[in-house]
Predict the 3D structure of the following.
Amino acid sequence: VQLVESGGGLVQPGGSLRLSCAASGFTFSWYAMSWVRQGPGKGRELVATITSGGGTNYADSVKGRFTISRDNAKTTVYLQMNSLKSEDTAVYYCKAETSTGYWGQGTQVTVSS
């Protein structure tokens, strides 16, 4: 199983980024996928989840600003992040919600002027 995140970087407050997570090694369409973040000095926070059927859930802190989506044909899950704030600074991880729970290596998002 491989989960490879990309799309992180440095962005100014109010800006946008789109994260991608390319998955392989398991039947992607069968499983829910999540984005989890860990900010500096903080614990891990579940940001968003998308089910195999396309249903979504978001942390209150990102509702209305972030959108999770998936492309089963490309075995990729996305996180569109708009109106970014300094408190969104974190390493963002992609997670496959299988019984084992596979994780990517993470991508750094820094929101700063």
